Amino acid sequence: MRTFLPLVLAFPLFAADAQFNGRWDITVPEEARARAWWMEISGAGTTGLQGKFVGFPGGDMNDIPHLTLQNGELRFSFDYKDFHTGQPMHRDYNARLTADGELEGRMRSSGGDDLQWIGVRAPVITDKDDGSWHDGKPVDLFNHKDLAGWQGLIPNLALGWTVKDGAMSNVAGANNLVSDQSFWNFKLHVEFRVGEHSNSGIGFRGRYEVQILEDYGKPPNKHGNGALYSRILPAVNASKPAGEWQAYDIRLVGRTVTVVLNDQKVIDKQEIEGLTAIAGNADEGKPGPLILQGDHGPVEFRNIVLTPLIH
Q1: Residue 265 to residue 250: CA distance in whole angstroms
Q2: Neighbours of 249 (CB within 10 A)
Q3: pTM reported for the whole predicted model
Q4: Strand (E) or helix (H) holding 175
Q5: CB atoms < 10 A from the CB of 140, how many?
Q6: DSSP string covering 141-163, please?
Q7: pLDDT of residue 46
Q8: Sign of the CA dihedral 145, 149, 154, 156?
Q9: What pLDDT shows up at residue 2?
Q10: How far apart are CA 108 and CA 58, in angstroms?
Q11: Alpha-carbon distance 143 to 248, whole Å?
């Protein structure tokens, strides 16, 4: 009987470890700008521990390469090169479960960053794009005269946007724009124009980004025009050449997204598993604003019309 005792004692530990499994929406309260991370853990309590993470430099959804769970503490790390200097960098993350079922974590980097973070379980969203939703009253979110109805994502940072000839445009590295209004399920029509080598994006509910990229003629990829950034691959590259006006028609119901780019359906009723790098709010169960990304390359927007979907 003694040979079975360690296994018996291990069962409660494995059961406790299994509580780490699932998808986690993460808030980083110390950051100067609003930012949210995302993590998925599977196989906790078994020998098959795995993880995925959004929040690592660059904003991709990364498999976690160095992941351990011992004595009730989850630990993982990333090695990478600094985007600006090319110097090797390192980040360490650790987290424990609280009595309330949340994750309390910390991130420390070789560059001196030391951030506390809180993770809560991602909500189950039951809304489905099943044909039962109908159009509400359209909302024109841009008056073609000024930036009324929009504010900067980063407080106390100049907007870096102007309005000319009925379109809004940014300077490279501008503040991201955030709509004053928040929305849940909707249809969205947006017209945009980018120059050569430019990069932008549209965030909906303040959490999920459809990429804007000057990539005419290139193969489709998860970082290309029409992609749900680093998550959903567009079926085709429907981009127009640099300098031409393009149009998105996006439909979001629950976690189900459809994306039409320049009259071609590139994403058809696919599930959004969780946050992307643009996320400024981790609460996936609530309405959120639109985000127009301006902190990369130059971009122009016009005719931003959102139609709420009503059940």
Answers
A1: 10
A2: 16
A3: 0.92
A4: none
A5: 11
A6: ---SSS-TTEEESSTTS---EEE
A7: 95
A8: positive
A9: 46
A10: 17
A11: 18
Identify any residues that bridge with 152 across adjacent strands, giving them in sequence order. 177
Three-state DSSP class for residue 111: coil
Asked whether 23 and 121 are in contact (CB, 8 A), the reply is yes
SS3 56: coil
- Identify how many contiguous H helices and E strands the chain contains and give both numbers: 1, 23
Contacts of 118 (CB under 8 A, 6+ apart): 26, 27, 29, 102, 103, 104, 105
Cα angle 275-231-30, degrees, rounded to a multiple of 5: 30
Question: Which residue do the tokens 């290139």 mark?
Answer: 218
127-132 long-range Cβ contacts below 8 angstroms, 24+ apart: 127/185, 127/253, 127/254, 127/255, 127/256, 127/311, 128/253, 128/254, 128/256, 129/251, 129/253, 129/254, 129/256, 129/258, 129/269, 132/311
DSSP character string of 289-306: --EE--SSS-EEEEEEEE
Q: Are 255 and 128 in contact (CB under 8 A)?
A: no
Q: Which residue stretches of the chain have pLDDT < 70?
A: 1-14, 30-34
258-267: long-range pairs with CB below 8 Å, 24+: 258/129, 259/210, 259/226, 259/228, 259/234, 261/225, 261/226, 261/234, 262/238, 263/238, 264/236, 264/238, 265/235, 266/220, 266/226, 266/234, 266/235, 266/236, 266/238, 267/226, 267/228, 267/232, 267/234, 267/235
- The sign of the torsion formed by the CA atoms of 262, 263, 264, 266 equals positive
Six token digits for residue 131: 């044909």
pLDDT of residue 4: 45
pLDDT in tens, 252-311: 999 999 999 999 999 999 999 999 999 988 999 999 999 999 999 999 999 999 999 999
Compute the residue count for the chain: 311
DSSP state of 124: P
